[in-house]
Amino acid sequence: MDVRRRYVIPGDTITSGPYRPEQNVTLVGDKKIVSTAVGVSEIYDNTVKVIPLAGKYIPKINDLVVGKVITHTSLSWELDINSCYVGFLPATDVFGRDFSAHADELATKLKTGDLVAARIANFDRTRDPLVTISDRDLGKIDSGELVEIAPGRVPRLIGKRGTMIQTIETATDSIITIGQNGRVVVACDDAEGLLKAKKAIRMVNSMAHSTNLTEKVREMLESGNDAPREAATERREDDKE
Amino acid sequence: MAEAAIIDSLKKARIEELLEQGKRLDGRAFDEFREISIETGAIPKANGSARVKIGDTEVVCGVKIQPDRPFPDSGDKGVFICTAEMLPLSHPSVETGPPGPHVIELARVVDRGIRESHMIDVSQLVIKENKSVVGVFADNVVVDYDGNLFDACSFAATAALLSTKSPKWEFKDDAPALVEGSEADLPVGTIPVSVTMVRIGQHILVDPNADEWQCKDARVTITTNSDGNICAMQKGGHDGFTLEQIKECGKTSARIGAEIRKKFDGISAGSDAEQ
Lengths: 241, 275
Hints:
The structure holds two protein chains of two kinds.
Chain A lengths: L4 E4 L4 E3 L4 E2 L3 E4 L3 E4 L3 E6 L2 E6 L11 E9 L3 E5 L5 E5 L1 H4 L19 E8 L7 E3 L6 E2 L4 E4 L5 H5 L4 H10 L2 E4 L4 E5 L3 H16 L6 H10 L3 H15 L1
Parallel strand pairs in A: 3-7
Antiparallel strand pairs in A: 1-6, 2-5, 4-5, 6-7, 8-9, 8-11, 9-10, 11-12, 11-13, 14-16, 15-16
Helix pairs in contact in A: 3-4, 3-5, 4-5
Chain B lengths: L8 H12 L15 E5 L7 E7 L2 E12 L10 E8 L14 H16 L9 E3 L3 E13 L4 H14 L2 E8 L2 E11 L7 E8 L2 E4 L3 H6 L2 E7 L5 E7 L6 H19 L14
Parallel strand pairs in B: 4-6
Antiparallel strand pairs in B: 1-2, 2-3, 3-6, 5-6, 7-8, 9-10, 9-11, 11-12
Helix pairs in contact in B: 2-3
């Protein structure tokens, strides 16, 4: 019986069983599955993968990412997507098919430093990833605060079936956008709630390897500071009236 | 170079919003430095050395003393040169290779602050006039970047120079010869302290961190000597200061400089102390 989860370094043999190699592992010979990263190996169903402890974000098609505009040419923007690759956002994506490099000025729509929620449209490691913002819920982010976590911790922040993120969102009355590249935007009307949500996200980032983390985060969120949250709810109700 | 790092628009808006309320993102007062730690003797093989941390900014400085030829126009003075370098590990935007304009400026501002304060009496560093003098080289290396490198490098170089034990040479057979077993402190006259301030809108902030640095309209670095007199000043950024603001910055630099100067008390050659 193979060990289900353990710490591995590159070169460690994880298993020689009949499993399908997934992220950060490689097949050596016919059977041996070997880690290519420092992290925790996981054997689940018939797959083997390694969750890296650290590292930059490697784009995957369809991933939601939060990008920062670095610069633009006359035809496209370049986005910093917290990766070793630069996100490439074509102008036609924003201006539509009748975009004209002569008539349309890219800086009027997105300027250096702007944050955008984008999706990886195409990527094959040989060229920089093509990103798109033409979809529902994508586009420029106008409000909220950016928190950066390690890209490898993103699944932990979301939690199993989204439990972790739901816990944080409900407890703090905030809306959290999580990019797979480790950039998290927290939007919250209440300053207390915002601080708490940020604290919770940082807690997940630093304690990602401890067990029962959702409970610990819930305890932290509920400890003592309920009053400001109630006040915030009241304020919002007043606003409605 | 870290100067090229781009701050996201949300954080910039937040910093500006807080400034309007009289607050800074990290909770400091406008004229408050982050925690400064000065540790000397960081490099055992150097003649003098120091490691300075200002918040998360970290700089290591080493001093090398060696005989040198004097400059042609100043044969009766020793040589003092201060340099600065940024390691790629200090910030994601820093690459290997020759220093960019901002790093060159950093070295020059730090050098000027120390030189113009006359901290080291270079006229005492002559071995043989017009032939051979003592060269003092203070090399700063930025290990971690979180804004305000001017002050971090300046403090590191000052502390390293204070902790320096200089060997002695005599002029023999047309060449400088080392006098074994005789070492002395450098001839130090005053202690220069630089204070860097940025203007964001109408607000002047002392010791900006990396985020505030990215939001600045203008910056000024003012170095004062032990008497509280201004001995060097460098202005940068795309915008300017009003006369009133510059006067205020001058007063602030003298006041804060005097407080910071106390941290250099007790640093002398051979002391491996953390201040």
